[in-house]
Predict the structure.
Amino acid sequence: MKIEQATIKDIARELNVSSSTVSRALKDYPGISDETKRKVKELAKKLNYRPNAIALSLRKSRSFTIGVIIPEVVHFFFSTVISGIEEVAYSRGYNVILTQTNEKLDREQSSIDTMLSNQIDGFLVSYSKETKDFNHFSRLLDQGYPIVFFDRVPEIPNAINVMVDDYQGAFDAVSHLITQGYSRIVHLAGPKNLKISQERERGYRDALKNYGIAINEELIVECPIGTSDEGQKITKSLLDNLKQKPDAFFGNNDMAAVGAMLACKAAGLRVPEDVGIVGFSNWQFCSMIEPSLSSVAQPGFNMGAKATEMLLDIIEKKVNPEEVKDALTLETELLVRKSSVRLRG
Amino acid sequence: MKIEQATIKDIARELNVSSSTVSRALKDYPGISDETKRKVKELAKKLNYRPNAIALSLRKSRSFTIGVIIPEVVHFFFSTVISGIEEVAYSRGYNVILTQTNEKLDREQSSIDTMLSNQIDGFLVSYSKETKDFNHFSRLLDQGYPIVFFDRVPEIPNAINVMVDDYQGAFDAVSHLITQGYSRIVHLAGPKNLKISQERERGYRDALKNYGIAINEELIVECPIGTSDEGQKITKSLLDNLKQKPDAFFGNNDMAAVGAMLACKAAGLRVPEDVGIVGFSNWQFCSMIEPSLSSVAQPGFNMGAKATEMLLDIIEKKVNPEEVKDALTLETELLVRKSSVRLRG
DNA sequence: TTTTTTATTGCAATCGTTTGCGTCAACGTT
DNA sequence: AACGTTGACGCAAACGATTGCAATAAAAAA
């Protein structure tokens, strides 16, 4: 049988005082004699008293819990973000309740509902690929619920967004490929409705423009799923069908880039001599494959940490959400490895 | 300003009935007139009423929340486990609150404390590498708290454990290497205090014995950290120092195995012709590297799902913890890829 | 018409904690 | 001796929902 936790009432009864006294004694409120405080604390320790956070939540209409909504846990980038969130939340005394949407809108909706029921103090969200309409978030914002979006951020009024500089990251990656002498650069793009995909594509285009290279729309291919299989198939079909063979691939993510690498190898092309490849996200495996994959590192941990700091600051009213800059952009870092270097520095 | 949620009282006041009536009407209790039910439900919908789960928790001493304690989120295997946990918990109407210990015992302790404060209904835990003593868990079990351990499971009375058959997985992997003609097989072992490490080592030893190969203790090396860097360094020093060069590596995990692969390549050895390599866990990158890495697949999602099913069954008293088998072992699957095949099938 | 039944609803306690306000005795001041 | 202070504590309401036990009125039975 489950042994119930000792409560303030138990302590009060045992000591023949009122619960108010016990409560105040435990918190070192003035107006309680040292003698009483001593006795209360002693008994509390002996009974292994633990305040009931649920009762506290009810009283204060605060739960010291934040809700995290992400597309998928099994995703290196998101798992690093979670790690950052967890660290900050823990150190500031908050709990994290987590749900993954599996990229489904209805899961997103219902997760929000149960979190609201659970009186969470704020949301941290990266929305699903299915989400094209943001009314469910706007409504929450209007009602004054603190929300901080990260990575996948919506363009709606009053939203507070933490993201990486996808544009710059892509721009850097493609510029790097160009300076390495690659010029017919394929972009394995992401889903068009995600702002991050748009930004990365924009960075790709601008880098080409910047070096005076004409943009060939045939070289921009959407990879909606984002697996290495998909990248492999798409790359193969490009290699088979394009008259002008491409000589480099910039992947919207690392999985697609690896797919491209495998397809190139299978086609007898050497990486990086014949084909240069750069990915995005810097998954752990980038440095473990042969040749090692250059990639744009996103500061996942940092993003989670920053987003959480910001959310908690808003919750604790340390900052006014109206006054906070509506977007915080974190720097990416291009990690140049073997897959994209054919000139000696 | 945050707009407060409508409560039962709000509905009651508006309709000039008591809160009891509203409560019963909402739940279709008998003894409430259809007319009243209609009006209550209508207004509830209009006010966007959402039951306050906190109040409910307080009343019922149940929170419909389970606590998950894991070493690290950023770990492919654990993230798949989380995914499985999340799925089952969600579908059965439970919330998941998550903490990572970062392999620290004190984090483990304090996570348990805050979870207890939050009246969670049960624990799902995979303990930290620092944990050598299980009193904090035994105490909880004695008090009747439902706990299900997964992957890293303790050997304490009454514990309910879900694990993979590490022994068999290791046995299969090493047997496979032997039948491929490798015989001087190194085992890059895990931390000695983890049962999973012990089991994998036992599988390694028994496989060798089974084929009549003498066990050379020099070939069993502990890799306490478990990164690819560590694996690489250790492998290099083995290659440099052993008189009898090893011809295969069985890694306690994939990272160590990849490290071994890189070190071998760096030493001019060919994989799999000169050296065979098998890892453990089947991380995503296994199929993306060259040569692709053979590995023992652990059913992470399934493990998370099973453990959660079991925990919720206990919580909901669908099963009696005394009667449940104290251990559930899931099958592993050896995925043979290029890194360990030098004989044609 | 009186009594019994039935349908519908309200009261109040409960879960554990906090907190504004009141109480009461002991003490100090003039 | 009468008064004001002060120190130490208790009462009771509140947070939101549930639920056993009345309570009330209307309908049915006698």
About this structure: Residues 7-9, 19-20, 23-24, 27, 29, 51-52, 54-56, 58-60 of chain A lie near DNA strand C (CB under 10 Å from a C1'). Chain A has three domains: 8-51, 64-163+300-329, 166-298+334-340. The mean pLDDT of chain A is 93. The longest helix of chain A spans residues 76-91.
